User: What shape does this take?
Amino acid sequence: MTTPTTREACADLDAADPLAPLREEFVLPEGTIYLDGNSLGPLPRAARERVRRMVDEEWGQGLIRSWNDAGWFDKPAVLGERVAPVIGAEPSSVVVCDSTSINLFKVFTAALALRPGRKVVVAERGSFPTDLYMMEGATGLLDGYQRRLIGDGGPSLDEALDDEVAVVVLSHVDYRTGALHDMAAVTERIQRHGALVVWDLCHSAGALPIHLARCNADFAVGCTYKYLNGGPGSPAFVYVAPRHQDAARQPLSGWHGHADPFAFASDYQPATGIDRFRCGTPQLLSYAPLEEALELWRHVDLDAVRAKSVRMTSLFVDLVDRQCTGFGVEVASPRDPDARGSQVALRHESSYPVMQALIDRNAIGDFRAPDLMRFGFTPLYLRYVDVWDAVVVLRDVLSSEVWRSERYATRDAVT
Amino acid sequence: MTTPTTREACADLDAADPLAPLREEFVLPEGTIYLDGNSLGPLPRAARERVRRMVDEEWGQGLIRSWNDAGWFDKPAVLGERVAPVIGAEPSSVVVCDSTSINLFKVFTAALALRPGRKVVVAERGSFPTDLYMMEGATGLLDGYQRRLIGDGGPSLDEALDDEVAVVVLSHVDYRTGALHDMAAVTERIQRHGALVVWDLCHSAGALPIHLARCNADFAVGCTYKYLNGGPGSPAFVYVAPRHQDAARQPLSGWHGHADPFAFASDYQPATGIDRFRCGTPQLLSYAPLEEALELWRHVDLDAVRAKSVRMTSLFVDLVDRQCTGFGVEVASPRDPDARGSQVALRHESSYPVMQALIDRNAIGDFRAPDLMRFGFTPLYLRYVDVWDAVVVLRDVLSSEVWRSERYATRDAVT
Assistant: This one.
């Protein structure tokens, strides 16, 4: 593909885009170019009615009966079955519950127990930090574990791997740069050393085809509020390979993971299969929009998503190269699209105020400390003309130096 | 107070009830006597609009900006401040997040670490089981802990207490019988032995005045979807006494509990104060109805709630005694109202089909294995005439033996 050199050429790509009709399924604020769907996906139109129904009918009228009549108890399993095909997982290997952090704790401790005697855990220094924090919390309860951090100037994965390594936790796509691991190859290298791998899919689920089963992955976790569009803080998912399910035990052994929760026994007996990775009562209202968001994915071809994603990120990189040179921006993401997820990071010494100025002009990305601007390209609802328009705004902000205005200097509490 | 002997006398009590106007704040299905608010509170009217606003405006239009602009990041702390007065907690000692099970894990492990060297944990055999399961999960990660179960035929609390006990986990109100602990006296007895107490307030928060601070409690957890009416699976709360907050560390150390979450540091540094008991990204949509539900509690006098609750449970017990003798039911709750929460349990050898027949007649309580029917009395929206009417239905079901019908025999998956 040659890069379009005009907005009209971008519009032609949109006209030929097989995914274009999906844009109508989402609420997108008028005049906004939303390049932060890699952080919080937009509202699926159908979710509004689903939420209203859960509130007014299931809760308001059904009350306690809805645990049975509306299938509340089974939501984590039912939505798990809908997530499974999106991440290439086997049936009955995914449940939707709790947060990514909590689920990481579950699979990480379960994995450690499957590799007794091995006392080294490996993670990327550039992991999304909560993964590191949860591992720290878990190993802090246990005796004698040592952590090896790889990447970002430290040793490589291959340098860190040896027969003392129990578990490796990796982000499929780097939350900062969008760098993408080759899941099959990396899994194989880890397992060759007898270690287990936990994949964090937060920045890849819904962004590109994932084949957990085909890659022989051991465990995975991920969130549903980014590319899957489940709503703010919608419940996370957890995957356990079928071959581990009988032996895997996790310590957040709440009653919803019990073999017979309504027997009210005083001793814990884990449910068979993936259900033992559930814990307490699910926050049901947060499942309602996710239910509709996942319904959309039934009809989406992930190869088409990936093809459009690669085209969009490549278009963005090319346009930045052409139109924004000389303004101190640098592409921080891999230039090879095969090594990149569905986001592009730009580095600038004043990334924070530049991003604030962009947001002020309705081109919404986000900032990640210390110096990155992130732009997410989400093929379900973005158009090629949005990519074009975003670069026009970016060039304008950079060339006008409007970002030097004092109003963009103050950091919000949350960014 | 003398027990009313006619429905008219009950209506007179309603007419004089200072809490009566609050009933208008809730959606209650026409013709239903809802005696299961101790399991799932009904929908507060204001919650519907609050949910719509979060979905359509904060998520739909605000998108990622709502983390700042709509105060999403601070919801766990802001709602914690609203829960605090309901449970007699100090300011800045409560956060709302995750589930009761997860929060119990946090405070239980934090408490154990504050009592190094002590290797015994104490809990009630009749605890709501998830408390026992989470303790089992936590001690399973640690070395050498022994569990002593008290009550239900086992040793008493006093028999179990010695200077090896690190932590005691107790339900303020028993989920089955409604038996109520004297929080001040029991806390004092536990602390005299140098142990720490964790109170589970699931069945007391919003049902009666609680004075965590005045009772010198160490830790507490509880849910918000029962008497607090936050919605199905609404997020739980966690309390840590200010004197423990600096030293307490919990292992579910996710990024929202970090001192500086947006610095994205690779090492965990706990936030000061109660915020370190947060973990991952909150399931925000589930906070929306709770926000309105808690708003109602600002204007509620908990002593008035307790007075009405005592009157209602006493009325129910008296009416059952008078009208249902000879049908095999027995009051399983304490007859002394001072020793009872806001629920009454009846024992019957066929409690399951009897309860199904009641529900079929729109008198909704619930069943708890093996043989209890539970009836919750929630003064915010129930009337004395509802108590009267419920006993009329109960007597009818028992005397007609309609519960013997085959249609009431089949157990639902969830009850």
